[in-house]
Design a protein that fits this description.
Blueprint lengths: L1 E5 L6 E6 L6 H8 L4 E6 L1 H16 L4 E6 L9 H14 L5 E7 L1 H13 L6 E5 L2 H7 L4 E6 L2 E8 L4 E5 L8 H18 L1 H15 L3 H21 L15 H10 L7 H18 L5 H13 L11 H9 L10 E7 L2 E6 L3 H10 L3
Parallel strand pairs: 2-9, 3-4, 3-5, 5-6, 6-9
Antiparallel strand pairs: 1-2, 7-8, 10-11
Helix pairs in contact: 1-2, 3-4, 5-6, 5-8, 6-7, 6-8, 6-10, 7-8, 9-10, 9-12, 10-11, 12-13
Bound molecules: nicotinamide-adenine-dinucleotide (NAD) and zinc ion (ZN).
The site of nicotinamide-adenine-dinucleotide has 29 residues, from helix 2, helix 4, helix 5 and helix 6.
């Protein structure tokens, strides 16, 4: 088992990564001394697959377990679901010392993290991410959120967990589409920071998509370490260091917002966003044609979308213009200089964005 510490002084925490390590959840939680009663927030599917391992792991350490299920999908990141959970927890929380366990993908992690951050002004939280995307991205860094009708992730807090336990074997049950979704973010890490990771994904792309646990473990470890090193230096996104994690996300979020939520998965939209950001980088003379082609080829090899379909380009441009991350009304893009080297650039002309989006739409 590999251990990566996210160093944040008194709020530091370990990320444990390995295969078939779910049975060790009880002893890890017990050693943290965070409580005697686990409230596991999950959905029916993930509970059915992995709930029994979690129950057994906690009961071995005399930690009681209560499962709270929410419906599957982004719609659960809502005010109603969050407060229904909080009310259930409040009824249950009598003569107990509870802590929250987020068992599932990014939706569960964001929701359960948000609930843990506001119930009694914050109770201990453990992330047990079970999607590729959640293991390499959403479970690390302390961003929690629910959505409002006006925008995704509009309400939330920075709230660090006490432990992240990533059992790579849980990825075995993910669909191919889910694997591709996570792989898009893994390719992003290669592009922003780690050339050898990019080369590894190029070489082992098919193995990764077909759930080869050894290859997946390497990628989860590499990406987790990159994210840990970035967020520990810029926890609250105040220094601009965390910004590079948004490579492909300015356009990606635009695509997600302009399409009906659900028609593109996050990683698919980010893949298109990376293609567009790389094309803009090339047109601005920052990126060589060779490296641009290499990124394009890898995204295609990973089975990620090549063209923007059924989304109005004007709607994408409008969401970029109103992005909550914009500073002083200028848009902000993470552009690429080469594989593993990026640059944050402000004020890309809307004409260039429009022109490039046109090249990628059908
Ligand atoms: N907090 C952050 O820093 C951060 C970063 C990136 C994304 N996010 C958020 O993450 C969410 C997307 O996360 P996601 O892609 O994991 O989606 P998700 O949580 O909806 O999970 C995808 C699907 O996989 C299923 N699933 C989960 N684990 C499984 C397993 N082991 N086997 C089979 N099926 C399984 C889920 O039930 C769901 O149907 C979005 O809400 C996004 O905003 C947050
Ligand atoms: Zn992302």
């Amino acid at each position: 088992m590999k251990k990566i510490i996210v160093k944040m002084k008194e709020r530091s925490y370990p990320i444990m990564i390995g295969q078939h390590i779910l049975p060790q959840l009880g002893e890890k939680a017990a050693s943290l001394n965070i409580g005697t009663d686990a409230v596991v927030i999950t959905n029916r599917l993930v509970r059915k697959l992995y709930g029994p391992y979690v129950s057994k792991a906690f009961s071995k350490r005399n930690i009681s377990v209560k499962f709270l299920e929410v419906p599957d999908g982004e719609k659960s990141k809502s005010e109603k679901v969050a407060f229904d959970l909080i009310k259930k927890i409040a009824c249950y929380d009598i003569h107990k010392k509870i802590f929250i366990v987020a068992l599932g993908g990014g939706v569960i992690g964001d929701l359960a993290g948000f609930v843990a951050s506001i119930y009694k002004r914050g109770i201990p939280l453990i992330h047990v991410p079970t999607t590729f995307l959640a293991q390499i991205d959403s479970a690390i860094g302390g961003k929690t959120a629910i959505d409002l009708p006006m925008a995704k992730n509009l309400v939330g807090a920075f709230y660090q967990p006490r432990l992240v336990l990533s059992d790579v074997a849980t990825l075995k049950t993910l669909s191919l589409r889910q694997m591709r979704n996570g792989l898009a973010e893994a390719i992003k890490y290669g592009m922003i920071k780690d050339r050898s990771l990019f080369l590894y994904i190029e070489k082992h792309c098919q193995d990764l998509l077909s759930h080869n646990l050894q290859r997946l473990t390497y990628v989860v470890q590499s990406c987790s370490a990159i994210k840990a090193r970035i967020v520990e230096k810029d926890e609250r996104e105040l220094l601009g260091l965390r910004t590079i994690l948004n490579f492909g996300h300015t356009i990606g979020h635009g695509i997600e917002a302009a399409s009906v939520y659900g028609s593109y998965q996050h990683g698919e939209a980010v893949a298109l966003g990376m293609r567009v950001a790389a094309a803009i980088s090339f047109q601005k003379g920052l990126l060589s044609a060779k490296d641009q082609q290499r990124l394009e080829a890898l995204l295609t090899k990973a089975g990620l979308p090549q063209r923007i379909r059924k989304v109005k380009l004007s709607a994408i441009v409008a969401t970029i213009a109103h992005d909550k991350k914009n500073i002083s009304k200028k848009n902000r893009f993470v552009l690429v200089r080469a594989i593993s080297s990026v640059k944050v650039v402000e004020g890309i002309s809307l004409n260039l964005i429009r022109k490039t989006l046109q090249q990628y739409s059908c």
